[in-house]
Amino acid sequence: MAILSDRDIKRYIEDGLITIDPLDDPERQIQPSSIDLRIGNEFKGFRVIRKPCIDPKDPSDIESYMETFHVEDGPFIIHPGEFALATTHEYIGLPDDLVARVEGRSSIGRLGITMHVTAGYIDPGFHGRITLEISNIGKMPVALYPRQRVCQIVFETMTSPAERPYGHPSRDSKYIGQTRPQTSRIKDDYEIKNSRL
């Protein structure tokens, strides 16, 4: 695998192989080996609920733990120890022969904010807004402003195009085309949905 350089990123975008929409400021957003992405204006955070656990087999359980916040004017404040979901402002599309990783920007990380805690890998063929899994591991609340650059996407070439890319009819692509922060759809995993556990 090889990481695309800024030159290759521009070429892939110009050729319509990578979609970044909108890409309002390419000179500022395209870095030497990545593209800076901005945070959207919708967030999901956990409610405090007195239940013993989140149960992936309960179809109504996961959604009931979260509430949605729309931020139009001003910031979303994430407090120490909190976890929230958001999406990138940009809609992303990948061809069948590229994978991508989302990483937090160093300037945000130095505030104690992680932008993509565990699931920063983006499959070939994915299209949609990327859900950001945000945590504040610092000691102070931090303000996050819609359309602020918070993370970066890195593209890697594959040895050949995927035979069954994300979104393929035979795959279980639960988040294809997402445009809003999505809570976990673990209840749709094959082994849970078919009571294999």
UniProtKB/TrEMBL annotation:
Q: Please provide the record's keywords in A-Z order.
A: Hydrolase, Nucleotide metabolism, Nucleotide-binding
InterPro entries from the xrefs?
Answer: dCTP_deaminase (IPR011962), dUTPase-like_sf (IPR036157), dUTPase_trimeric (IPR033704)
Cited NCBIfam families: dCTP_deam
Q: Which CDD domains match?
A: trimeric_dUTPase (cd07557)
Which GO biological process annotations does it have?
Answer: dUMP biosynthetic process; dUTP biosynthetic process; nucleobase-containing small molecule interconversion
Q: Compositional bias of type Basic and acidic residues: which residue ranges?
A: 165-174
Region ranges (Disordered): 161-183
KW Nucleotide-binding (keyword) present: yes
**Function of the molecule:** Bifunctional enzyme that catalyzes both the deamination of dCTP to dUTP and the hydrolysis of dUTP to dUMP without releasing the toxic dUTP intermediate.
User: For site (Important for bifunctional activity), what residue positions does UniProt give?
Assistant: 120-121
Catalytic reaction equation(s): dCTP + 2 H2O = dUMP + NH4(+) + diphosphate
Question: Where are the catalytic residues?
Answer: 133
Q: Which HAMAP family match?
A: dCTP_deaminase
Gene Ontology molecular functions: dCTP deaminase (dUMP-forming) activity; dCTP deaminase activity; nucleotide binding
Per the UniProt record, one Pfam family is: DCD
Listed binding positions for dCTP are 105-110, 123, 131-133, 152, 166, 174, 178
Stored PANTHER family = DCTP DEAMINASE
The species this protein was found in: Methanothermobacter thermautotrophicus
- From the UniProt record, give the pathway where this protein acts: Pyrimidine metabolism; dUMP biosynthesis; dUMP from dCTP: step 1/1
**What is the phylogenetic placement of the source species in the record?**
Archaea, Methanobacteriati, Methanobacteriota, Methanomada group, Methanobacteria
Q: What is this protein called?
A: dCTP deaminase, dUMP-forming
